Amino acid sequence: MQDKIIKFLAYNKKVSIVCAKTTNLVEETRKIHDLSPVATAAFGRLITISAIMASNMKNKEDKLTIQIKGNGPIQTMLVTANNIPELKGYVANPYVDIPLNEFGKLDVGGAVGNEGYINVIKDIGLKDPYVGISPLTSGEIADDFTNYFAKSEQTNSAVALGVLVNKDGVKASGGYMITPMPDATDEEIFKIEQSIFKAGAISKMLDEKLTLEEIAKKVTGDDTNRRSSLPFRILWIAFRAWATVFAAFSVAGNFSSNATGGSNSLISLMRKSSF
């Protein structure tokens, strides 16, 4: 199945759902960057949410850059994207290898760390780019972005991300973001929460060959109306020189969440990188 993003509305247009299948994208990423299984799972989740967020930008010239820097052994991950979405990125330690977690699964939280931050920059043609920073809460990526949307964008969204990896590579990868509108009722939100719990992991649903429309209906508990479909045009090129420049900034400590100069350095780097 082709990678794609599809946007839906549920509950009489009171709830927005964006669903993405990114299996091919994440597998290609794994090959290009020679990622370990846990690095594949972590970076795959980041590029999936980056694609979802980038698809909401209006113009091709708009640019999104997301950096995660935690206290785990993967160190730093960065993705930049336009609204097509075309994406490119960098992982500081692509070979990280740590034991499975207590549930026998890849320990993404342990690889990323639960201390650090998410740094989001949206350059949408205004005088100054939007810059949002929020702390990591678990390192599991989806939880961290749920917290980011609530604290930095004042949006109550449910985020689910998953990458299923086996001995041959990426078996399934994708994610969704559900955002209630202000007129959504408490009853509808409660129904969505229950549906998300019953639905299970997004990667498992994709592995079971559910379509994105079926997934949207399953996680909302409501019939959905498709708004638009966005197939990926993927620009996964190994920008080694660009990655090296980024690594130099990172080692120099310019990306501290408390350092204004660090944010300016990242904005400058983002604007120089082109698709």
Question: Which structural traits does this protein have?
Answer:
alpha+beta, 275 residues, 10 strands, 5-stranded antiparallel β-sheet, 28% strand, 9 helices
Describe the structure.
α1 crosses α2 and α5 packs across α7 (212-220). A hairpin with a 5-residue loop joins β4 (76-81) and β5 (87-91). The chain is of the alpha+beta class and 275 residues long. The model is unreliable at 232-275 (pLDDT under 50). The protein has helices spanning 23-33, 37-54, 108-112, 142-152, 186-199, 202-207, 212-220, 240-251, 260-272, and strands at residues 4-10, 15-21, 63-70, 76-81, 87-91, 116-123, 130-135, 158-166, 169-180, 224-231. The protein starts with a strand and ends with a helix. The protein has a five-stranded antiparallel β-sheet with strand order 8-9-2-1-10. It has a five-stranded antiparallel β-sheet with strand order 5-4-3-6-7, with helices on both faces. It has nine helices and ten strands.
